[in-house]
Amino acid sequence: MKKKSWLYLLVAMMLVIMAACSKSDGGEASTKTDDDEKATNQSNQNEEEEEEEELGTIKIGVLASLTGALESYGKQTKQGFELGLEYATGGTMIVAGKKIEVVYEDTETKPEVAVQKATKLLEEDEVDFLVGSSSSGDTLAVLPLAEEYEKIMIVEPAVADSITGSEFNPYIFRTGRNSSQDAVAGAAAIAGPGVKIATFAPDYSFGWDGIAAFKKAAEALGAEVIIEEFADPAATDFTSNLQKVIEAKPDYMFVVWAGANSPWNQIADLKMQEKGIKISTGAPDIPALSIMEPLVGMEGFSVYYHTLPNNPINDWLVKEHKARYNGEVPDLFTPGGMSAAIAIVEALKKSDGDANGKTLIKVMEGMSFETPKGKMTFRAEDHQALQTLYSIKLEKQEGIPYPVPVLLRELSPEETEPPIQNK
């Protein structure tokens, strides 16, 4: 019995040792697998970093009103810019062998903040391009920095003529239209030999400049501006101004206006269109269209409405925008953001990835590129993008809670070309 007991004990001890060895081997194998996985992940990360360093990086700083009164404009620009980079790079975010990075900064629609944010983008982020801004005031404050740091700035969507006029510097290129293009488009939509036109605008620089540009363009087309009415921009009662227009008996009244105290309801109350005076103005963004019910039937112009352009890029924009933003269509400044992104990518393709400002000036002057609004061309003299605008009529359409701009005809870049003002 003793021999059997020892035998059993020996077998049991061997089983314990084997189990322990097996457990130890398994633990070591498991540890080794975890270490291998960590090493692999680290290796992959190092390879990605090396690849990115090898590719090089193009940095773009975008200034926009992402909060405050112009928040909707800034967000439209941002969404359009992101979609534009995706479209222009085929989803790779790489151009001419370089990776694109974007830094967004909120100007808060304050020129002093815009300067601070632009300086941060140029000095800390070391961006190669600036883009912006939603406000002309913000943009004008930043323009000198582009020249000081010798960086290309794509202006979008600020409209002040002075940006590519009196305050122009060679590093500035604008994909957005300017105020004079709006005026020329407004004239092209209604002016002609023998047409009598009245104008109505707020009594400050925005109104004066807009009407002066419109009058020049309209008269060049053979029309006659028979009365100019400027109203207090803070007023809510425009009866006396509008009565003078009625007494002058024009064929059209062209309106330049901005602000919540619009004259549309009083125009309707005075039955000006029923008296044979056709109203004409620009069709703005969708929120502003929602208060233009009294102007259904009017003929004017539009910078953009998603159904107006007929080209593959706009088709792509509308489809992708709906897919990503809960079925919402792109609005007034979305295609501008997209156009700015496309312009940068096309310029870098032509420069083989060289983002040097002086090099790009030569590349971009006279450069044409396709956008959601068709072909744009940076005019060599002032870097203003010549572009298509639209002659439209406001109509009610079933299921849409605001008057819709319906295309009468495209206004070609040649028709809407503004005067050169930077001399």
UniProtKB/TrEMBL annotation:
Annotated signal sequence range: 1-19
Pfam families for this protein: Peripla_BP_6
KW DNA repair (keyword) present: no
Region (Disordered): 25-56
InterPro entries in the cross-refs: BCAA_transport, Leu-bd, Peripla_BP_I
Skewed-composition ranges (Acidic residues): 46-55
Leucine-binding protein domain segment(s): 57-395
Superkingdom field: Bacteria
Swiss-Prot/TrEMBL keywords: Signal
Sequence similarity: Belongs to the leucine-binding protein family.
Protein name in UniProt: Substrate-binding domain-containing protein
Species per Swiss-Prot/TrEMBL record: Sporosarcina thermotolerans
